[in-house]
Task: structure prediction
Amino acid sequence: MIHAVIYESRDKVCAGFYLQGHAGYAEEGQDIICAAVSVLVINTVNAIEAFTQDDISVVSSEENGTIECRLKEKPSQETDLLLKTMILGLKDIAEEDNYKEYIDLTFEEV
Result:
């Protein structure tokens, strides 16, 4: 199962995220849940780095199946939109009856 934690401020602004694990939906290389989550997360990090001036810290381990991204300051409008888009995609997967047992999505106040 993929465990996804979205870090939020008190006013519900995303301050980063942490993901760990593998979905286990199918064999490695065939797992559509892992692929979907990976695309959402990696594309979001890449887009923040490419299209915004926001300073982020990213630590990942392919071996452990983890990635953590934290913003150093309050996100710009662009980064906020990118993060909201990623969260929307993760929520859609987590709420889909056929896939919800493969991803656990929680929100943590920081």
